Amino acid sequence: MKQLINSIKMATFEKERTAVLRLEMDYELATLFEALELKDEEEVKSTKKKLEKIRQELLKLNAF
């Protein structure tokens, strides 16, 4: 019974975390777009690093 409850909790956590990561990804993509328009290379690099971290976490959660 404990395993079932833990599985349900984990599934719920993964769904919530995936939703949060997708929102963060949308925000960072908007930031990247703005940085590209402004030709702000430092911001572009920073945003790409953040997007890569988000991508890695989404892959771990099998959200893609």
Q: What would your notes on this structure say?
A:
The chain is mainly α and 64 residues long. The chain has one domain. The chain is 89% helix and 0% strand. It contains 2 helices and no strands. The radius of gyration is 16 Å and the shape is rod-shaped.
Short key terms for the protein model shown above:
single chain; 64 residues; mainly alpha; 89% helix
Total beta strand runs:
0
Distance between the termini: 30 Å
Percent helix, as a range, is: over 70%
Unreliable segments (pLDDT under 50, ≥5 consecutive)? none
Shape: rod-shaped
Q: DSSP helix count?
A: 2
Please summarize the sheet with the most strands.
Answer: none
Please state the CA-atom Rg, rounded to the nearest Å.
16 Å
Q: Give the helix/strand class.
A: mainly alpha
Number of domains: 1
Q: Average pLDDT across residues?
A: 92
Helix and strand element order: HH
Quaternary class: single chain
Report the portion of residues in β strands.
Answer: under 5%
